[in-house]
Q: What sequence folds into this?
């Protein structure tokens, strides 16, 4: 059983925040500590917007998928009028889980315990032997409808929910990061669609390791992913391919930009390049055309990450050329030092079927459950988590100071996007920003004395 955080735990976290802010050092114990995990659930995952699904996963009336926010299960459904609902997956009668299938199509959900039946809007529709159980007037069905998520928001087809009824609107929460999300989500006016079902796998790793890696760690690629480069899967000339670029902090989120060969646009088909240049704003297009850079990876706090890359899917021939893909992933906490990874592949709806197949292949071979780069990262994250469980990690500080003394932000007016931009990728500004946001949430309401 996980105990409630003690006063000493708060004091340790307050000191850890000071060390991060003043010296760029991070306490290793935050990666695997039961009391801290309990705080994360209450102060982060119960308070922020969490990504659940993409609209294209439920395209038809009656479609639904089963998703969760940590231990809270939700049915994400589309009703007969096309409206999307996020419904707590618990019967209002005796609390049985209503839906146990990961996905499907149904106009109703029937409880297997006593037979209460709900529409996919959440409305209570049927109560067995209603008059015998509740009298001649029956049951007030409006009062006993399914419970919706406290807040639901949709951003460019991405469905989020929050357990916090007082959270700011989703666009406000995303804030300045929306300008950068356009590069991922708005390359075509047709929008995106998910290819296949999301892949899921369990990893003995802390969710924060994955989230902070994707927010801006370009430094690990020259070592961690060397085998992929040597095998020719990643077509780059040098293992230091992410040394140069731009790192961004925007609102509570962040990303990094990677350069591409002028005119190649990550090797997207010309039809997508044309729509991207037409669909994005002039400042965004200027970065693509004049600077030849595009966002590679990003994290929306706390646990949604995006990766925009390209990989070869054949050793020889036409498909030896790198094929672009987009993956979004959720680092779902399952307990201290344990996560379930949810990973989607998305493509432009109006892309050719051939490109969709090849893009999905490029994703699966690199960042699918058994992908080459995914395995590289998993080994690192699980190793860090394993060591962080010991006693020594409570006094062991890690170096998050890259760029702190010698790299200045790009001056205001010289970078066209919002937020703060840094002219290198081998820096820790975005990762420190992630951790500052993390500590702000955990210590909200505590006096930092």
A:
């Amino acid at each position: 059983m996980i105990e409630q955080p003690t006063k000493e735990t708060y004091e340790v976290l307050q000191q850890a925040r000071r060390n991060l802010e003043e010296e760029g050092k991070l306490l290793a114990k935050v990666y695997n500590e039961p009391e801290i995990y309990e705080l994360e659930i209450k102060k982060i995952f119960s308070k922020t917007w969490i990504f659940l699904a993409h609209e294209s996963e439920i395209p038809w009336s009656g479609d639904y998928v089963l998703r969760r926010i940590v231990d809270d299960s939700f049915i994400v459904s589309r009703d007969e009028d096309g409206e999307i609902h996020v419904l707590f997956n618990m019967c209002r009668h005796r609390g049985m889980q209503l839906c146990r299938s990961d996905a499907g199509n149904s106009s109703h959900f029937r409880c297997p315990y006593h037979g209460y039946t709900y529409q996919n809007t959440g409305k209570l529709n049927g109560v067995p032997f209603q008059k015998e159980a509740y009298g001649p007037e029956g049951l007030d069905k409006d009062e006993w409808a399914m419970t919706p998520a406290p807040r639901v928001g949709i951003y460019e087809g991405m469905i989020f929910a929050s357990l916090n009824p007082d959270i700011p609107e989703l666009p406000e929460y995303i804030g300045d990061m929306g300008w950068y999300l356009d590069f991922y989500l708005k390359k075509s006016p047709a929008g995106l669609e998910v290819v296949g079902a999301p892949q899921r796998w369990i990893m003995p790793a802390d969710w924060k390791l994955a989230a902070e890696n994707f927010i801006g760690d370009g430094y690990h690629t020259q070592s961690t992913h060397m085998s992929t480069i040597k095998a020719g899967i990643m077509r780059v000339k040098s293992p230091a391919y992410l040394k140069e670029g731009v790192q961004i902090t925007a609102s509570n989120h962040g990303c990094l930009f990677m350069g591409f060969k002028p005119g190649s646009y990550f090797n997207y088909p010309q039809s997508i390049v044309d729509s991207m240049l037409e669909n994005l704003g002039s400042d965004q297009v200027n970065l693509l055309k004049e600077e030849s850079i595009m966002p590679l990876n990003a994290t929306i706090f706390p646990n949604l990450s995006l990766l925009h890359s390209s990989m070869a899917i054949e050793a020889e021939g036409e498909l030896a050329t790198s094929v672009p893909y987009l993956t979004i992933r959720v680092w779902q906490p399952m307990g201290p030092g344990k996560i379930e990874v949810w990973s989607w592949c998305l493509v432009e709806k109006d892309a050719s079927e051939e490109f969709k197949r090849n893009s999905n292949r490029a994703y699966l071979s690199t960042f699918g459950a058994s992908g080459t780069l995914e395995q590289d990262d998993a080994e690192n994250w699980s190793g860090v988590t394993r060591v962080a469980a010991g006693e020594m990690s409570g006094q062991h500080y890690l170096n998050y100071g890259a760029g702190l003394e010698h790299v200045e932000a790009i001056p205001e007016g010289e970078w066209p996007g919002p937020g703060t931009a840094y002219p290198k990728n081998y820096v820790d500004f975005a990762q420190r920003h992630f951790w500052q946001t993390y500590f702000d949430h955990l210590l909200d309401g505590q006096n930092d004395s």
